[in-house]
Design brief:
The protein is of the alpha/beta class and 222 residues long. Helix content is 36%, strand content 17%. The chain has a 7-stranded parallel sheet with strand order 3-2-1-4-5-6-7, with helices on both faces.
Length: 222
Amino acid sequence: MADLDGKVFVVVGASGALGSRIAQRLSDAGASLTLAVRSADSPIEGAHTVSADLREPDAAQRIIDAAMAQHGHLDGLVIAAGIAAFGALAEIDDDTVDDLVLVDFLGPLRLLRTALPVLEPGGVVAGISAVLAEQPVAGMATYSAVKAAASALFLAAAKEARKSKIRVLDIRPPHTETGLAGRAIAGIAPKMPEGADPDAVAERIVKAIVGNERELPSSAFS
C-alpha cells in the first residue's frame, strides 16, 4: 500500500489526539476518509463523518455501512478509539470494567468482525492497543488486562486475515502525551514520566500502514 491516492480508510476515534493526527496524515497522502467520532464535529474539514459510540452494539456495523455507502469500497481501518481507567483491582467497580471492555475490547472486535469481510485484498487494519499489553502496571490491572486482550485479538486476527491478503497490525505505542490519562473514566493516573510526542507516534503508525509491517511493538517507536 505504498500509494494511498484513491484508497479509502475508516478512522475510528478520529477526534482524539492520536486518531486525528493519523487521519490528517492519511488525508494528506491522498486517502479518502470516513471518520468515526463521538461528537458531530469533524477533525478534518469536508471529511465524511459518522457519529458513533463503541459502547453501543450496532456502532461498528453503522460505521462500516456508512463508509461503504459513501465510498463504495474499503481499503483500510484504523482503530484509535479508547478510554482509560486507573485504580487498584479491588477498587474498580463493575460499571467501569464494563465500559473498558466495551470500548477497548468489544468495540475493536466488532469492528474487525464487520470490516474484514468487506476490505479489499491488500487492505490493512491498524489496531492500536498499548504498551500495557507488554508491560502490565500496578494500579492499572484492569486497564492492562483489557489492552492485552485487544492485542491478542489483533495478533490472532492477523493470522486469520492473511488468506484474504489483508494485514492486521497490532500497534503497541509507548505512553504518549495524548491527554487520555486526564480524561480517565475512573481513578487518578499514577505519576508517569513524560510521554512520547503524539505527532511522532502518528507518523510512525502511518509509516507502518503504508509499508509492509505486520506488528508494531513499543520498541519500534524508540
